[in-house]
Design a protein that fits this description.
The chain is of the alpha+beta class. It folds into two domains: 156 residues, Hemopexin, CATH 2.110.10; 399 residues, Glycosyltransferase (Alpha/alpha barrel), CATH 1.50.10. The protein contains 16 helices and 41 strands. Strands 3-2-30-29-28 form a five-stranded mixed beta sheet. Strand 16 and strand 17 form a beta hairpin. Helix 9 runs antiparallel to helix 10 and helix 14 runs antiparallel to helix 15. It is elongated and about 100 Å long. The two termini are 31 Å apart. 48% of the residues are buried. InterPro entries: Reg_prop (IPR011110), WD40/YVTN_repeat-like_dom_sf (IPR015943). Keywords: Signal.
């Protein structure tokens, strides 16, 4: 029985406490090609032949069995015939070539024309107002041989052309629906469909049933294309638009099981294979409406939906829509330009090794964007982020933001300081400590020592033992923002004062990790031990204030009982600052082996009630909820459980459980992995949510413009945020929001981001390597 119980426990731990790091789909905008007036923009490419918004992409179609598509370039604004292009697409490259149509085809290829590919990669049908051209590419990919069939003179515009399985041709025109049999000799009108604009034509691939749309109706044939006869032209029926179909039809697409997806200006309607209708709108999770284009990739079973504001994607195995909007996904300079999608084409690119890459081509008013999935492991994603740090995010060893000289381009950048360089450097250093502990990588050790050098600089530059600077600069005039001082200990340097609790939280969290995991000799261990001792002692000796060089406490450097317990204005900090101080004292006692800190701990914990203060440290009033304070609480939680003490264990357990229980719906990988250090009785610490967020974190950390305020799939909280803003009730995927660090509000909806800066990857690297260190992420 005991053996069986142990096996069950091991199985439970393996299933619920570990994630096997296997490849997953990582979507990213891999390439973009802009119209001439938008180029150069970011590092995106330019469409060939000086394409512009006056000569845009008007249609796209996949070339069967190839990683290639045809693009139609609308030249009507410059009084030229349409151009046809071939785009060969690979994972990181693309090649555009103009199709050299025969002169009589090119001259008739007007703006009122359409095209379609046949069942093979060497056939193409171009329907113009006067002729239908059947083109063969059997001898050349770029110079087809074409035959033609005349059309009735009443036709002035071709909206759509489709080839049926029996090689018959179906054309939607300004005067109705026309049909030509496989002989390609003559076209006849389907008289049961009115002689009005037929804007969309589609053929069911399973039964060859024909569907076409007019302004008022969706028409369909009872039987397949091969049932057409000269006597009655098949039997046709229709559905009214309004009612079962909400609005004017803009696009049609079939999925692999015979469901017809009907895009319109209000929502998506689905006509199932059994002829029942279903409405898919915001209530069913559709992020935006005003549908312009619908495309289904039968290979990957992904539905892509273009709209006035970006692209939606639905995977058959998932009930949830993904939303790709803004320059992170679709080329453009903001969330208000470049996001109107005229056409989207979903298909699967096959690599030389046979790997399937889900792909969408998105034609918008800025150009052509390519969204692709890559099969990554979390370890590969970690390598991607690690490569960002040096040199862009390294300044004197500090992990810094970088300013981009050009919109969205990391080609030219400048490292910039921030108020919280000490905190961000500490979090990055912590990631490298755990990385080194797991891998023993020389690179991780080198990075850790480099970041520690940056933190040492912040301590040294002030000239006061125990007082770190917010940030520091060399050989420059002090910036005008904030309070800056000339360094007395390091001539030629300036440093920023009024250091906050954020910086102290970072420093005192990471020094023990660096001491225990990276330092090897006693001489090395003395370095973080001295910094930790100096800082903690400085605060205690100054009655639990952080005293600036002015001789006065810094604005946020307050842990004194007289303030936390006796001053109402500090009510939001009472719990979190008590938590910080108690964990720092316990850690300092362990690292320095000095009972001075133990005595200070006992006084605060028991005489001044700090142990009780920490139990309810998490503020839950939405109007008073500061997400930065969650970061300033969970890093001390990490420090406490790293210290491995049983002192105030009950209070600490109640505190972290209460906080994590309030926050677990955010799926924060950092909070969840820190909470796992408590070894919860039921083994539940949100592993699935943590892994989900590691996967969803955006590949690009550029501060792209993001705006979710006009999404229709979001329910708003009735209570405003701390900043007086509307916020969502449910968490959106992290690659759909503007969240790059754990001090932000993941439910915020309003416009954020500029495209002119890039964040460092520490907020992802720390939870990832902590998860690996704790055994929650296991390499396969």
């Amino acid at each position: 029985k005991l053996c069986g119980w142990l096996l069950f426990v091991l199985f439970f731990l393996q299933i619920y406490c570990q994630f096997k790091d296997e490849p997953f789909e990582q979507f990213n905008q891999t390439q973009a090609f802009l119209y001439a007036e938008n180029f150069p923009l970011v590092e995106w490419g330019e469409l060939p032949n000086k394409w512009s918004a006056d000569t845009p992409i008007s249609a796209m179609m996949r070339i069967p069995n190839e990683n290639a598509v045809y693009l139609q370039q609308d030249m009507s604004n410059v009084n030229e015939p349409q151009h046809l292009w071939r785009l060969d697409l690979q994972i990181s490259a693309a090649n555009f070539e103009r199709i050299l149509l025969p002169a009589h085809v090119q001259n008739n290829f007007s703006s009122g024309s359409s095209f379609s590919t046949g069942s093979s990669n060497d056939t193409l049908v171009i329907a113009t107002p006067k002729f239908v051209f059947y083109c063969s590419f059997s001898h050349s990919k770029f110079a087809p041989e074409c035959t033609s069939t005349s059309l009735p003179a009443t036709i002035q515009t071709i909206y759509s052309v489709q080839i049926a399985g029996d090689q018959s041709t179906w054309i939607g025109t300004n005067v109705g629906l026309f049909y030509g049999d496989s002989s390609h000799n003559v076209f006849q009108q389907i008289t049961q469909v009115p002689s009005v604009d037929v804007t969309e034509v589609i053929i069911n691939p399973l039964n060859q049933r024909i569907y076409c749309s007019t302004q008022e109706r969706l028409w369909y044939s009872y039987s397949g294309a091969n049932s057409i006869s000269s006597e009655n032209e098949g039997i046709w029926n229709f559905y009214w638009i309004d009612g079962l179909i909400d609005g004017t039809i803009t696009s049609l697409a079939y999925d692999s099981i015979g469901n017809l997806w009907i895009g319109n200006d209000i929502c998506i309607n689905v006509l199932h294979a059994n002829l029942t209708f279903e409405r898919v709108g915001p209530a069913r999770g559709l992020p935006v409406t005003n549908i312009t284009s619908v495309s289904y990739d039968s290979q990957s079973k992904n539905l892509w939906v273009g709209s006035w504001r970006g692209v939606n994607r639905l995977e058959s195995a998932s009930p949830r829509w993904n939303y790709y909007f803004g320059p992170r996904w679709i080329a453009g300079e903001s969330t208000t330009s470049g996001q109107n999608v005229s056409a989207v084409l979903g298909f699967t690119v096959t690599t030389g090794s046979g790997e399937w890459i889900k792909t969408a081509l998105v034609a918008s008013d800025s150009g052509l964007s390519v969204i692709m999935s890559s099969n990554w492991t979390l370890a590969q994603k970690a390598e991607h982020y690690q490569s960002m740090v040096y040199p862009r995010h390294d300044m004197y060893g500090l992990t810094a933001d970088c300013s981009l000289n050009s919109y969205g381009s990391v080609a030219n950048w400048t490292s910039v300081n921030s108020d919280n360089d000490g905190l961000w450097t500490s979090m990055y250093l912590a990631s490298q400590c755990f990385r080194y502990a797991v891998t023993k990588s020389p690179d991780a050790k080198k990075n850790a020592w480099n970041a520690f050098k940056g933190l040492t600089l912040l301590n040294k530059v002030t000239g006061v033992h125990g007082l770190p600077a917010r940030t520091a600069l060399k050989g420059t005039t002090a910036p005008t923002s904030g309070v800056w001082y000339n360094s007395t200990s390091m001539p030629g340097w300036v440093w920023k004062g009024d250091t906050s609790s954020d910086e102290i939280t970072g420093h005192l969290m990471v020094y023990p990790l660096f001491h225990d995991l990276v330092c090897e000799t006693e001489e090395e261990k003395a370095l973080p031990r001295n910094l930790l001792g100096n800082m903690t002692h400085y605060i205690v000796e100054n009655d639990y204030y952080l005293i600036d060089v002015t001789g006065k406490p810094t604005t946020w450097g307050v842990w004194a009982p007289s303030q936390l317990n006796g001053n109402q204005t500090w009510y939001t900090q009472r719990g979190v600052n008590a938590l910080q101080m108690l964990t720092w004292l316990l850690s300092a006692q362990r690292i320095t082996n000095d009972d001075y800190y133990g005595a200070a701990f006992d006084q605060l914990a028991y005489r001044y009630g700090y142990a009780q203060n920490i139990v309810n440290q998490k503020i839950t009033d939405p109007m008073d909820m500061n997400y930065s304070d969650d970061e300033l609480a969970f890093l001390p939680y990490l420090l406490y459980y790293w210290t491995a003490t049983s002192t105030i264990e009950n209070e600490m357990q109640m505190s972290i459980y209460r906080a994590w229980n309030q926050l677990q719906r955010e799926n924060s990988n950092l909070w969840n992995f820190i909470y796992s250090m408590t070894e919860p009785e039921n083994g539940e610490f949100g592993l699935a949510g943590a892994i989900k967020t590691l996967k969803e974190w955006p590949v690009s950390l550029i501060n792209w413009p993001v705006d979710n305020s006009l999404r229709k799939d979001i329910h708003l909280q009735r209570e405003l945020s701390r900043g007086g803003q509307y916020q969502a009730t449910e968490l959106l995927p992290y690659d759909e929001i503007s969240m790059y660090r754990w001090n932000g509000n993941p439910y915020q909806l309003g416009a954020q981001g500029s495209g002119y800066s890039e964040y460092d990857p520490g907020a992802w690297l720390l939870p990832y390597w902590l998860g690996v260190y704790l055994g929650h992420i296991v390499s396969t």
